[in-house]
Amino acid sequence: MRLFIEQLWSATSEGKPLTRRALFFWQLLKAFSVIYTVALLVRRLALSCKVAPRASLPGPVIAVGNLTVGGTGKSVFVEWLARQSNFFDRPAVLLGGYQSPVLRKQKTFVVADGHKIFGDATQLGDEPLQIAEGYGVAVAIGKDRHEALLLLLRAMKPMLPDAVILDDGYQTATIHKDCSILLVDARAPFGNGYLFPAGPLRERDYSRADIIVLTHADSILVSLSDFKKHYFPSLNPIAIVAGRHAFAGLFSATGEPIEISTAQPVVLCSGIAKPRNIEVTVQREGFTINDHIVFPDHHPYTDHDIKKIITHMLQAGCSTLLTTSKDWTKLRLFSESFDVAGILCLIVKIRFEFLTTHEYATFVALLQNVLVEGRAAR
């Protein structure tokens, strides 16, 4: 169903004709979009009457989010931001914990305190575990980010974080934010222009953003200045910077960089918001993709799934499986099955980078200015 809806979004964005069945479903989605819009307005009205609590921190709270329902490359950007030692030394990351099994039993949970990780993917979910392992930072999850932060601060004492990054925090209203960074996929900034579920938009308002980062900006075919004027006419173009997601290499299960011949056929396996992204990245590196086995985003892999993957690969005569860092947090639980079948599992790592040194310098200046203003307001 999700794939069908995303195909509808793509078709309506590109102006392609719809079949009678698709048109009926499209009209139904637009009706639900109206209900979503009303609910969004009611929520905004309710939140406007409240003041988000400030965290008692020595450093800033930085929100990173998007206007759409996924696929902008947010996790990779959060990883890059968490590693920027010129801004902070001990950042912590807060996530909503979407589809984290542990949140079925409790409202908040400390995933990692910066030294120890308290669970695996079957308990914590893929993204919280990916962040805790990949960045080596403290991580907490919970729908109420303020409550999650308070829990994390108690767990980290006496070494408190000097900054907090709110992953998927643009719409978060339960905690005061010193800076809001909005990520926009330059390939389709607003999708088909419709709010969910008729389109991928959570909302259309980008005015709350202090900085807009265009991801996948290497795909822009017009000048950057023209692009900014067209899509963000009411925003100061200086506050918009451009970056891209680049191939960072293949890595073994133990985290060691691995090089294999691009002539060697591979099978891709992913359960992410936009599987086409990883496919294009691998193809750009010259690899021959035998097949791409696609699962839904955040898919909890089962024994049946692993048997399906292994059988498919053996029948295709392919012994190398490429997957994402997020998927590997779950697939590695079945490492023994892959080893017995003689299948080599490699992780495709992606890094964020700005298009030019000027774009990077602009971002640094923007962030520093916003943080200075935030400190002055404390």
What would you note in describing this structure?
- The mean pLDDT is 90.
- The termini are far apart.
- By secondary structure, the protein is α/β, with parallel strands linked by helices.
- Helix 5 crosses helix 10.
- The longest helix has 29 residues, at 20-48.
- The chain has helices at 2-14, 20-48, 74-82, 121-124, 126-135, 145-156, 224-231, 275-284, 303-316, 325-331, 335-340, 357-377; strands at 61-66, 91-95, 108-113, 138-142, 163-167, 179-185, 211-215, 240-251, 257-258, 266-270, 289-294, 320-324, 344-354.
- The chain contains twelve helices and 13 strands.
- Strands 1, 2, 3, 4, 5, 6, 7, 8, 9, 10, 11, 12 and 13 form a 13-stranded mixed β-sheet that branches.
- It is globular.
- 38% of the residues are buried.
- It has three domains: 2-48; 61-245 and 354-377, Rossmann fold (3-Layer(aba) Sandwich), CATH 3.40.50; 247-350, Rossmann fold, CATH 3.40.50.
Key structural traits:
alpha/beta; Rossmann fold; 12 helices
Précis, in short:
The chain is an alpha/beta fold and 378 residues long.
Q: What low-confidence regions span 5 or more consecutive residues with pLDDT below 50?
A: none
Which CATH class of the largest domain applies here? Alpha Beta
Global shape: globular
CATH architecture of the largest domain: 3-Layer(aba) Sandwich
**Series of secondary-structure elements, N-terminal to C-terminal:** HHEHEEHHEHEEEHEEEHEHEHHEH
Number of strands: 13
- The value of Rg in angstroms is 21 Å
CATH topology of the largest domain: Rossmann fold
* Measured distance between first and last alpha carbons: 47 Å
Helix content: 25-40%
